[in-house]
């Protein structure tokens, strides 16, 4: 019986075997560059989306005890229903004098003063023509939401909560 011999490739044969074994594309120098560029574009896109998403919104939440509202990066206001003295839906408003506000192309976000409410917090979209006015123990809040319907629906829901206090 004849012994079988095993040959270990050397020289050119070894290089050929390495050439056949391909590296993943992103492990190559060009692949790493493209990967880094893709990550930079992705991060820029996510930052842009986050900035545009938060750059214009009045957010309102209600539970059984409290109305919570925020605008842009202002500190959220939490007003217990038991502290509310009056809640009305109005179709027009003279904003009055600006005390302090945030730059916002879609509306108003800050502290204002007018003859009707005195000093008040104003969180509102300029395109929406109705406002919810909440007079409470600590002052007055005037706000609306992204649409007339959302504002009206929120007012009706707020009235239900206030009736149950």
Kindly describe this structure.
With 165 residues, the protein is an alpha+beta fold. It contains three helices and nine strands, in the order ααβββββββββα. It has helices spanning 12-20, 29-54, 148-163; strands at residues 58-62, 66-71, 77-80, 84-90, 97-101, 107-114, 118-125, 131-136, 139-143. A hairpin with a 5-residue loop joins β2 (66-71) and β3.
Q: Order of strands across the widest beta sheet?
A: 4-8-9-7-6-5
Rg (CA only): 31 Å
Inertia-based shape: elongated
Strand content: 25-35%
How is the topology of this model organized?
Blueprint: H1 12-20, H2 29-54, E1 58-62, E2 66-71, E3 77-80, E4 84-90, E5 97-101, E6 107-114, E7 118-125, E8 131-136, E9 139-143, H3 148-163
Parallel strand pairs: 7-9
Antiparallel strand pairs: 1-2, 2-3, 4-8, 5-6, 6-7, 8-9
List keywords for this structure.
six-stranded mixed beta sheet; 33% strand; 3 helices; single chain; 165 residues; alpha+beta
Compact overview of the structure:
By secondary structure, the chain is α+β, with helices and mostly antiparallel strands. The chain is built from 3 helices and 9 strands.
């Amino acid at each position: 019986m004849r012994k079988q011999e095993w040959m270990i490739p050397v020289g050119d044969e070894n290089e050929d075997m390495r050439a056949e074994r391909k590296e993943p594309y992103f492990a190559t120098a060009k692949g790493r560059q493209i990967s880094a560029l893709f990550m930079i574009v992705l991060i820029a896109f996510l930052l842009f989306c986050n900035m545009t998403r938060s750059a214009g919104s009045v957010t309102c939440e209600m539970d059984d005890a409290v109305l919570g509202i925020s605008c842009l990066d202002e500190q959220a206001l939490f007003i217990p229903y038991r502290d509310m003295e009056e809640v009305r839906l109005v179709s027009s408003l003279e904003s009055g004098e600006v005390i302090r506000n945030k730059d916002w192309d879609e509306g108003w976000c800050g502290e204002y003063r007018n003859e009707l409410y005195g000093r008040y917090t104003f969180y509102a979209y300029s395109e929406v023509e109705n406002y919810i006015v909440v007079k409470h123990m600590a002052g007055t809040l005037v706000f609306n939401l992204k649409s007339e319907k959302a504002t009206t629906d929120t007012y009706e829901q707020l009235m239900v909560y206030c009736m149950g206090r």
